[in-house]
Write a structure and sequence with these properties.
The protein has 15 helices and no strands. It is globular and about 75 Å long. It is 72% helix and 0% strand. The two termini are 40 Å apart. The longest helix is centred in the N-terminal third of the chain and has 34 residues. The protein has one domain: Orthogonal Bundle (MetI-like fold).
């Protein structure tokens, strides 16, 4: 009976895994397929005629793609590192039982999780007050603070035994030394989990470039790929309506969409296994009641 239970458990998780793996394999298969085959036979996991035309179209200007990759990597890592440090420090402060003013800070912060000033007000502040229009510093401050992340850090730090902090004080450690040598090693699971989620969020973000960047050198990868897709769609529409010249050729619009998905998601797929082991412990923190 026990073996039968294990068998069905394995079958269930194999089917569940395939539900996540097959769509990604489908994206790769379509991206390397011929455009005519996709339009004629539809989407398929089997490649009838291998073709890299979609990737050639995406990488028409390799320098721009490489520059956007660099901008996206710096944006994702720099913004996540700065935001994680700020949220962790804030959460640690609010978790301290001897901090008198934590309720006066916590309540306004919770309000921001449900009510926002909107994009227009933040745009006016960032461009008119801080003059961050077309400024790479905007990548550092865009979406840095998160009330949800602060609550997660606060919940985790609240569970750290007070005896650890007291023992560090008895040994003569100050606040900074206690935080670095006692609290941070204990908080590695939640730090790694929130860091990966932050990198994933910033990697897929295009709104910062959309709202604040005008120079192509500051375009993130997601924003650049969206512009490539819009350009291809516009050219195809023009060709179909007879506006473009007859020598323009046929654009692989369908396969380009999937090639863009592979180009954009590839680094995150390779990065995920290194953070996976931190998820179970790190992300379960927010569900624990104080």
């Amino acid at each position: 009976m026990k073996k039968r239970h294990k068998f069905f458990t394995h079958i269930f998780f194999i089917i569940t895994s395939l539900c996540f793996i097959l769509p990604f394999l489908l994206i790769i298969a379509i991206s390397i397929s011929n455009e005519d085959d996709v339009l004629r036979y539809g989407y398929s996991l089997f490649v009838r005629n291998f073709s890299l035309t979609a990737y050639r179209y995406v990488f028409r200007f390799p320098k721009q793609i490489i520059d956007s990759y660099i901008v996206t990597v710096l944006y994702a890592i720099g913004n996540t590192a700065f935001g994680t440090i700020m949220c962790a420090l804030t959460g640690y402060t609010l978790a301290r039982r001897d901090f008198t003013w934590k309720k006066f800070i916590l309540i306004p912060m919770l309000i921001t999780m449900f009510f926002s000033g909107g994009r227009l007000s933040s745009y006016i502040v960032n461009t008119q007050l801080f003059h961050l229009q077309d400024n790479p510093l905007m990548f550092m401050f865009w979406g840095t603070w998160s009330g949800f992340n602060i609550i997660v850090f606060r919940t985790f730090f609240y569970q750290v035994p007070e005896s650890l902090v007291e023992s560090a004080r008895l040994d003569g450690a100050g606040e900074v030394k206690t935080l670095i040598h006692i609290i941070v090693p204990v908080a590695m699971p939640v730090l790694a989990s929130m860091s990966f989620l932050g990198i994933l969020s910033k990697w897929n973000d295009f709104s910062c470039s959309l709202y604040y960047m005008r120079s192509p050198q500051y375009f993130t990868l997601q924003f650049l790929l969206q512009k490539i897709l819009q350009e291809a769609d516009f050219i195809r529409s023009s060709m179909n309506s007879g506006i473009a010249g007859a020598g323009g050729g046929k654009l692989p619009l369908e396969t380009v969409k999937f090639a863009m998905c592979v180009v954009a998601s590839g680094p995150m797929v390779m990065l995920f296994p290194f953070f996976q082991r931190f998820f179970v412990k790190g992300m379960a923190v927010g569900a624990v009641k104080e």
